[in-house]
Amino acid sequence: MTSAKRNTSFLDMLNPCLQGKKRRCGRPTPEDTEQLDQYLLEVAAGLFVQHGYAGTSVDQIARKASASKQTLYRRYASKEDLFKAVITNLTASVLHSIKDTPLKNPLAELKHVMQLLLDLSLQPMALGTYRILISDGYRYPTLAEYAKQNIGGPIDASILRLLKAAEAAGQINPGNADDTTVDLLSGLITGAALESALFGLAPFSTQAERKVFFERGWTLFVRAVGGECPAPPKTKATPATA
Q1: Is the whole-model pTM more than 0.90?
Q2: Nearest to 64 by CA among 121, 140, 128, 11
Q3: Residue 232: DSSP 8-state
């Protein structure tokens, strides 16, 4: 009796030595490993968003990724660790950008950070994981605590750092660089838009509409803390018609 032919999976293709053939070769390169890690996180994120945290199992993720459970457990000790890695991965680029923000012009840099946060909050995957934390957080409090400490905490700390730098540079009035201002600013820029998106409503019909909303919110904030808003561009006068 002949043995069944082995199906080549996506994971086989990540190893350039295999090329669809069953043969031995050297260890995967760091680039191959990074691609595999990213692929597993993307598959897991999609299933978590589709089925929720409680409705998703490591078995499901392994099958969807054409991987073994051992492949996942070598990287993540539990489903909880895998979900934590998923939300960290979703926010990694934004957190990196915020953390590395220089202090040459703190107020302008803070504006850039808040724009990044608005864009992040409205990404479909970010909204999906946010819904999971809201719906399943009370049953799995360690997930919400992780998100607060490792995502919300660093973001708030970076905003506060920029507020203090803006205050020191005289860009905003004294007494506005504190945790309360961080909360109020975050609510002003992301609160209403995020709430609408979580209800399944589109807060903005176009990117231009989102930009107008952001600019108005930012202007309100800057005026409230005594900062200076750039003057609106001057429009050229049109010649009078006869």
Answers
A1: no
A2: 11
A3: P
